[in-house]
Automatic annotation (TrEMBL):
CDD domains: Luminal_IRE1 (cd09769), RNase_Ire1 (cd10422), STKc_IRE1 (cd13982). Its EC number is 2.7.11.1. The lineage of its organism: Eukaryota, Metazoa, Chordata, Craniata, Vertebrata. It is an enzyme of class 2 (transferase). Residues 390-429, 506-547 are annotated as: Disordered. It is a single-pass type I membrane protein. Residues 818-946 form the KEN domain. This is non-specific serine/threonine protein kinase. Keywords: ATP-binding, Endoplasmic reticulum, Hydrolase, Kinase, Membrane, Multifunctional enzyme, Nucleotide-binding, Phosphoprotein, Serine/threonine-protein kinase, Signal, Transferase, Transmembrane, Transmembrane helix. It comes from Mastacembelus armatus. It comes from the Eukaryota. Its cofactor is Mg(2+). PANTHER family: IRE1-RELATED, SERINE_THREONINE-PROTEIN KINASE_ENDORIBONUCLEASE IRE2. Residues 559-815 form the Protein kinase domain.
Amino acid sequence: FSWCGSSLKFYFLYVTHQVGGVKSVTLPESLLFVSTLDGSLHAVSKQSGDIKWTLREDPIIQVPVYLSEPGFLPDPSDGSLYVLGGKHKEGLMKLPFTIPELVQSAPCRSSDGILYTGKKQDVWFVVDPETGEKQTSLTTSSSDSICPNSRLLYIGRTEYMITMFDTKTQELRWNATYNDYSAPPYDEKQDYKMAHLVSSGDGLVVTVDRESGDVLWSQNYGSPVVGVYLYSGDSLRHAPHLSLAMETLRFLTFSSAHDQADAHSTLKWSYQFVKEQATAQTQLVPTLYVGKLDSHLYASTSLVHHGISLVPRGLTLARIEGPETSGVTVRERGECEITPSTDVRYPLGSINSKKNHWLLIGHHELPPIAHTTMLRDFPGTLQHSGEAVIPPRPHASSASPFQKVAHGNSDTNANRGGVDGRTSEKAESPAAVLPVYMTRDLLTLAVLTLLLAGWLAFALTYPTVTQQVKAQRQLEEALESRLQRMQANIQTGTVVSSDTILSTHTNLSSDSLPASSDPPPSPHTPSHSISDVMKNGSSEHNLTLEGNGEEVQVGKISFTSTEVLGHGTAGTFVFRGRFDGRHVAVKRILPECVEVAEREVQLLRESDTHPNVIRYFCTERDRLFTYIAIELCAATLQQYVEDPTCFHELNPITLLEQTMCGLSHLHSLNIVHRDLKPRNILLSVPNALGQVRAVISDFGLCKKIPDGRSSFSLRSGIPGTEGWIAPEVLRDTPENKPTAAVDVFSAGCVFYYVLSSGQHPFGDALRRQVNILSGEYLLSHFMEDIHALDLIEQMISAEAESRPSTACVLKHPFFWSPEKQLLFFQDVSDRIEKEPADSPIVVRLETAGRAVVRTNWRMHISVPLQTDLRRFRTYKGNSVRDLLRAMRNKKHHYHELPPDVQETLGELPEGFVNYFTSRFPRLLMHTHTALHMCAHERLFHPYYLPPNTQ
């Protein structure tokens, strides 16, 4: 499970392409940018709030549905963390660090046995400023070319990923992803005429004139607002805005508009208050709002007036003796929702939860700062005190204009700690002061850190390094310099190889360097030392390290070092090259991975005779690397799904069938792929006839199962990619050893991914593997496509023995053409024509037949066909056999039918079959299942796998 949070850091730039260069163009000052919790960035009119365009990304936060102890709640505005539960059931508490700070400090380990790992990655979105359409994304590993445009908008985003692993329970405690788009603070010297008030519970935004207090406009954007931005000077900047409870916002706006005739009567109020409540002395209290978006919980600071009930500090769970009230509604997931202006009371028996804390959805008193020991090794460079770890946002300090509008008396509120939740928290909470014992711990840690740093500096500078290690370092520096130049000069091509599917998160420089210590020599590699290479030199090596685009020749393989097609872990690179006069992809592998490379080559040699398995050509070696020449392909299946317009002539069902043919070939050789996913299925370059093949690639994790065995062990680790791994691989129990069925499971997920245009049957990437383990999937895209639904449900079954073999999958009606479907219906009708009504075949066919024929099939066919059927014989409308008989007879006598009946039925075979299957969508699958008892008969061999081969 993970969540994505966002305190947005936008870098916007308009670019005009000219012959003479690039120049900046001013962004229209009439636009505001509103970021909402569901991941949308709305460009709206500053005068009316109307949406001009919307850029949609992943939700700002995504958190676990299951809250373990302790459970974490993120603040989507700045990445702060709140913890629920804990060892002493303390209730909600604020942690003194944020997600970016956790990532900066990782890898680290806390005193209670929690391991933290972190990762940071940047990306740029290139957007058309007129329409909001995203043109491309720019990352460290890719820079897709885009069509020239006079103006482009660049949006920068930083992604922080943190994982918490509990060494005591050997379980993943929490997994979080935080997207940080930020903008420079607003220049307070400029006089901003408007005040933006946003609702913490829904998407309402009310914009008020600061001087007059008039409501200028109000809009509801459908999801809570987490950021408001305006364009000022040369960049997007935070616009001053204030978060209030949705009831408070409606109350205050209603009050301020009360005496303005009907100027703002179009506003709709959820809660009406009497006039006496809306006085100039209205006081706002800072609170922590705990909200829920879909199944995700979040927490954010919010201001409320005294008409809103608050959950007391430290209380998240009902006392067992608490009286019941209708004001608190307990939902089925365990959360409670409180209606405004009611006392906080709790339903009886609400603590019958052993694992999870129940958390009230609503406004809580500001929690104290947690004196946590979770980061005893927190870096000294990061702020670690009771004060706000992230400084107050610019708009928070400029809250006084809101006081003037909403309250009419800013001085009174200032005496109460102000309307800023952070300021009030610091003033009211004694826990915000750092305890003395923590100060002593930090001082001790600082002294120990200095001593350790001095010792390390001495050890590193002591001249005991051998010449061989020096040479190794020189080589690494040369490699790093060369790879950096390559990264800067990479040009995106339209052709990719099997290794473009490798992780885009891999850092180019670090992953491409050899290990710092010499790896043990492999029996399959030359025994030249690093120092020998540096002394003696090699023309090939010199070209590789120092060349500027020169062609590298290693045996029969040649390539240009700047034409990089892809790269992956352990320093693997893939270049565009040539072998024996043909274009190929050249995979360059470090010596440490030579054994893996040789196993991959061996399996490729054994399996590449099949047209749907990537073709292997040659292996060459020099003193530093192993080079493998493989088939050059046009795209990955993932690229096909993400941009089908570039491959509109390809049939997705045909590609899936070819994939299964290749997988079936591997299984026939006792080879299990173990890492099947859309990025490992490639689309070949069109041949002379324009035909494209789907081919299976990347055999790095393949396993050859010895004869006489059907399963493989996991001694070398769990193979595959998270989200595509079969459940039995993760469980690894003695009674459920992984078999070739793991590939069928992955293929089922790929089927759904392709047919649903990029969706996954087990949900988004954050919860995918957990849902796989629990067997929770959703095939909502195939509620009407019964054939695809039936096949995919079988393939992704949680029980490996329930999944069909690859050969059975290829026999499934999902792949049948209209002609084959019509032949099947005809063969079935011929087979059962003389069978008595009580024969097992007919009984099986008619079982549950009413749903197939929709009670009476004659009522669902067109009038001309009904009339024609009555001319010759009588058909039973509730019989599946009679429906098949009618189809067979009309097919046999199609050319003798009246013109109006032929027009109704359509052309043979496609129109004819579609006429019946569209009216009776269950007919094909029902008939196929019923006649499975005849699979051994020669007549049905084209439609079923013989029983002895299943």
